[in-house]
Amino acid sequence: MKVLITGGAGYIGSVTTRVLLARGHDVEVLDDFSTGHREALPPGIPLHEGSLLDAGFVDRVLAAPPDAVLHFAAFSLVGESAAHPLKYYRNNVGGSVNLLDAVARSGVRRFVFSSSAAVYGEPDEMPITEHAPTRPVNPYGHTKLAIEWALADTAAAVGFPAVALRYFNACGASRELGEDHEPETHLIPRLLRSLVDPGVDFAVFGDDYPTPDGTCIRDYVHVVDLAEAHALALEGDLRPGLSVYNLGTETGASVREVLAAAAAVTGREIAPRIEPRRPGDPARLVAGNARARRDLGWRPRADGLTSILADAWRWHRDHPRGYRG
Ligand code: UFG
Fold it and tell me: What is the pTM of this model?
């Protein structure tokens, strides 16, 4: 299948690009390199360099339509989205509208969108199923939900199948590709960077949550498992209109449990400072994934946290300055 991947130079997009190539798909990447890395692209891959905000550019890319579009390109920092909401609405929603507009006029037969657990906000029931109300608590989550709506309406009007994959906590690495954000806000890369470089600070944000050990619980899912879910969504039978799927493991780990697993994997002693809570962090977010298992045949790995930390640790040791070295 000929597949266009927006944001193919980003963290999850680049891993998915490699997984699709390995499965024999004909892949092209669109990226503006605002947050992605050229080093994350396979040599020689067809590349459309430019921004989704440039509607003329997007139309030209879609003039030779792919069979499917995988749409990863987005800004994804929750804190930044609260400080600069319109930057997020303009880029995430505006860019997606340009893309959907071109897709609606082309022969694209399938669309897979990178959504987020952020669309749920702070749900009352765990695990979180796709039936949970969508009540985002920050602009980043609002933009992801707004794009789901635009996608649902476009897919219904035009009559193509579309999928929104709501990621929980993406982490881990493949052999060549890892997590390199600037600034880095996520737990596992911040922790591992601090072990590689003692000059890098690390702290736990809050140990007074209503959880067994007082630290927040999250559902950490391996980036290669996420990439495989995209391949399954691309290749499977889907009904017209939008289908939404949670991508998580149904297993929660607290920050302290992540630190203990990281100490075991790395052999390092980890005794971080405790800081006050980070504003906006819910105590517990764990995915129900029955729908993705049933409809997509998706099976996230069972040894989740250990392989996530082993793979991420190998990548961070090999790339102490991320893709810069
Ligand atoms: N944490 C620390 N220290 C750090 C970084 C994080 O203690 O240096 C804690 C956080 O407070 C939180 C947990 O580790 O309790 C996980 O934090 P992350 O920043 O790694 O991930 P989040 O759960 O905040 O964010 C994830 C996705 C977002 C998505 C959000 C939805 O990365 O894209 O879930 O709630 F929007």
Answer: 0.97
